[in-house]
Amino acid sequence: MRFLDSNPASAPTPNPSPLLPPGGRHLETSTDFMWTIAAWDRDLASYAKRFPKYLDFKGTLHQSAAQLQRCLEFDRELDLIAERLGHYASLRSSEDSSSEANLARESRFQHVMIQAAELAAFLTPEIQSIPDESFAQFLSEPSLAEWTIKLQKLRRYKPHVLSENEERLLAMVSLPLSGIQETFSQLTNVDMNFGVIKDDKGQERELSHGLFSSFLVKSDPELRRRAFHQYYEEFQAHRYTLASSLIHSVKTDVFQAKARHHTSAREASLFSDHVPVSVYDNLIETVHAHLAPLHEYYELRKEVLKLKELHFYDTYVPITARMEQQTSFDVACEKVVAALHPLGDEYTDTLASGFRDRWVDRYESKGKRSGAFSSSSYGNPPYILMNYKEDVFSDVYTLAHEAGHSMHTWYSQREQRFQDYHYPIFLAEVASTFNEELLTHDLLEKTDDPRMRAYIINRQVDDIRATLIRQTMFAEFEKLIHTMDEAGEPLTLESLRSVYRALLERYHGPDMVIDEVLELECLRIPHFYSAFYVYKYATGISASLALSQQVLAGGEAERTRYLAFLKSGGSRYPLETLQLAGVDMSSPQPVAQALQLFAQRVRELKELL
Fold first, then answer.
1. How many CA atoms lie less than 13 Å away from 57 in the CB half-sphere?
2. CA 151 → CA 28, 77, 552, distances in Å?
3. Beta pairing, strands 373-375 & 383-385
4. Averaged confidence pLDDT in the chain
5. How many domains are there within the chain?
6. Are 379 and 354 in contact (CB under 8 A)?
7. Which of 101, 113, 275, 401 has CA 20 to 30 A from 436's CA?
8. What whole-number distance in Å separates Cα of residue 71 and Cα of residue 60?
9. Do 361 and 384 form a contact (C-beta atoms < 8 A)?
10. Residue 89 falls within a domain, yes or no?
11. 205 forms bridges with which residues in the sheet?
12. 500-505: long-range contacts at Cβ-Cβ below 8 A with a sequence spacing of 24 or more?
């Protein structure tokens, strides 16, 4: 439904693993073999020849349910092909974003998609213009039964859909408006050079995004300090370019929200999930009310590490002796699969098979996208991109996290039609952090060693801190800078730094020394260039903590209910889906309960240490 969503979800996150032959039952493309670049070129050309047929439906959608169905089927057929074309192009770019050929391929695809979007701009306005009585009659027709969910969701956008010409204009400017994210990615992943630094063994290593996190968990405080400042020197050198990019990203969000008659950029972003802004505000207010245990934790860190001053670069090094250990990728896979046994054999057998069958692009390489993610296209296996490091045990958790996304996709594809299988990010972050909680539980169950227990609890404390509290700080920053722009207040490098520093001081408390260069963190977080995403990490872990406790304490009923959540895809709005799974995210209670667990774990950690 690429052209029938007035506020479409972003394309699936790219992944560099090679495409496998399509296996979905409903896949309707002609490419039933592993794609080569030549095959991709051929299918893009074929798609470009077919999309002008959209105009055959123009002015006819109000005539009958049968005609509307034919249009929907045509759109789905082309969207299936477009999803795979875009997915393949983005996979190759993520594999090596310094490759001119990869970048050119993505550019060609985007150019064709803009042309298609221009021709198809009439679809949504024309469907929205069908009189209410006729639309209700159409929905009662058996021929549209499998489209009911999609059409009802589409109809909800009626107040925010523009005229055909206006929709066509917005389609034409979509690529230029989205170019800020590409600029940020190219600057930070390709152009920036962080230099060479000596590691704890005296060997020179090239500093990178991935190795930066490795250095922050080293026991030598001077090494952590040097890595931190050397890393941020490069951001300091590009601070004005980055600030300009972030400011224009905010202005783009505000423009698009105004163009579609939303009250704010934040409300516009939450609209597609049918999530009221009160959920966002409840999250921030609840975290504000529970910051004392975080400050207590930082005080404990400072004491255990025997530091005169606690800096941000001291907040990731383990405060237990067991943290620095080598974990091979294969062992990591075994640990993750074993931990997820409460979800049943089908879940664990499928995941174990996926790990063996090249679902994962494992290690860092030059030009490869930083971080980690999971993605897929309909009828194809899910893929995981990682930059796995054997000396960073948190990467085992990252693998469990991305496996949650992958299995969510696997179940959703198997149970839902193409038009209903795309689950929203709000739900995706539940499935991923749920897996992390099961991993923590399994590791704690399998050890009586106080030092290992302290390490695992420390890891969970840091996980909740990073996923719930830190992401809420990020979410508050996004809210504040968008509100400033909407109120006509100037956004500048200095105002961005000032807002961010105030948040750093509030969230981190009196025991943390805030280095001036840490203010530049607000310019380097990729999610800030796709705003109002990060709050879903915080709500996701809050929901997943509640659901994981239900599954671990329950039986077949609780497991079945959770698997039904994974299978639901995008067939319901996220708050309703979670309510059926057993947690009410319209209430601040799940967030408060998660923060109470955080406080409990901090107390346990203090006792163990």
1. 27
2. 21, 17, 38
3. antiparallel
4. 89
5. 1
6. no
7. 275
8. 9
9. yes
10. yes
11. 197
12. 503/473, 503/476, 503/477, 504/473
CA pair distance 433, 468, nearest whole angstrom: 11
Whether 151 maps to a domain, the answer reads yes
Confirm whether 233 is a catalytic residue: no
CA neighbor of 249 nearest in space, from 186, 187, 188, 183:
183
42: domain CATH number is 1.20.140.70
- For the chain, give the number of residues: 609
pLDDT tens per residue, range 511-538: 899 999 999 999 999 999 999 999 999 9
105-157 tens-digit pLDDT? 888 998 998 889 889 989 998 999 999 999 999 999 999 999 999 999 999 99
To 10 degrees, what angle do helices 345-356 and 394-415 make? 110
Name the DSSP letter for residue 489. P
Q: In terms of residue numbers, what domain contains 138?
A: 37-183
State the DSSP code for 571: S
Q: Does residue 328 contact residue 529 with C-beta atoms inside 8 Å?
A: no
Whole-angstrom Cα distance, residue 452 to residue 458? 10
Residues 83, 402, 437, 558: which is the catalytic one? 402
pTM of the model: 0.81
- Residue identified by tokens 């509640």 is 546
User: Quick check: 519 and 303 in contact, CB under 8 A?
Assistant: no
Secondary structure letter of residue 14 according to DSSP: P
Residue of 352, 330, 332 lying closest to 341 (CA atoms): 352
Say yes or no to pLDDT of 21 above 70: no
- List, for residues 190-200, the tens digit of each pLDDT value: 899 999 999 88
Asked whether residue 465 is domain-assigned, the answer is no
Give Cβ neighbours of residue 560 (< 8 Å, ≥ 6 apart). Answer: none
Let me know if residue 85 belongs to a domain. yes
Q: What is the pLDDT of residues 374-423, one digit of tens each?
A: 898 888 889 898 888 888 888 898 999 999 999 999 999 999 999 999 99
Contacts of 609 (CB under 8 A, 6+ apart): 300, 304, 319, 320, 454
Alpha carbons 557 and 579: distance in angstroms, whole number: 15
Cα angle: 580, vertex 584, 589; to 5 degrees:
155
| 227 within 8 A of 194, measured Cβ to Cβ | no
